[in-house]
């Protein structure tokens, strides 16, 4: 039968001690625990566990908590250490226990629940975390700025080097005609189907929306010049530039990047060939030459799409549309779109070739550079278009 838990308080020669007997575990009554707690609060000097006494981890944890709570300074002493003492009272009581009880108490001491964090400690933890966050954020921002600055400087150097070798090739007649026509066909004529279809769809969509809005305002006839000017100045050249940027910039980067990985460019340098003259200039000139012609065709398809949209929405016939077009649309709107085209082609070719030369390590970098080249080419096309729009608006053209 399990012996009943009880404790004895002993006082002799001004020394108070407690002797625990029986089984002390999670089934111990609250009344018994309260009595033990009250006895511990009387500055007990020693606590002895009888040889027949048994405890569990629940009581061991509670027992140590009560000792720590009743002791003014327990941070520097371990009550399980019978040799520990302090010259300054009060001091933890000396615990005398068999080995099996001492092991349980030592385990409970190691697993003792920490005191709850105060607001100050929680605030310090928050401040340290915030400092680490902002330090990492500013470090990443600084690294990004450095990488962006270095990439921009390298791109400017690449552009300068391209124009230098281009001028020298023109004067020394080193321009290779066969690769030039090859890239005109690959980057220009083979891109015509998707480019013209995209321009037609964009012209139709813009024409339809413009006709709806102007019809609501009571001026449906103005949709002719509005759609025509927008197609010639913006939609035709810009939509074409976006298509060519997505097609040719990635192609140039992939081609030159593969040559970089397979060390073909190093072999060209070893044989005395200039990679810029052989790889960059033909692609650069091909897009600069072919883009105005592509813009002309894209303008025609965009106007056709706008004409069909206006006819479908407003009911303006083709003859009336053409007459209104000649009355209200000047040639200057067409030439503004055509003048943009070589700049679009130059930006696309330079970005695509530059990103191809930047590849150094592996095929994974090739895929990343291809993606970056398309994004950069689109960015420069949008920037060039915005610059032209700002200049023409200031000049009232």
TrEMBL record:
Record's GO cellular component, any one? ATP-binding cassette (ABC) transporter complex
Which Gene Ontology molecular function entries are recorded, alphabetically?
phospholipid transporter activity
Record bears the keyword RNA-binding: no
Which InterPro entries does this one have? ABC_MlaE_roteobac (IPR003453), Permease_MalE (IPR030802)
Transmembrane annotation, as ranges: 152-171, 191-212, 273-297, 303-322, 334-357, 377-395
Q: Enumerate the NCBIfam families for this protein.
A: MlaE family lipid ABC transporter permease subunit
The family assignment reads: Belongs to the MlaE permease family.
Name of this protein: ABC transporter permease
Q: Which organism is it from?
A: Helicobacter macacae MIT 99-5501
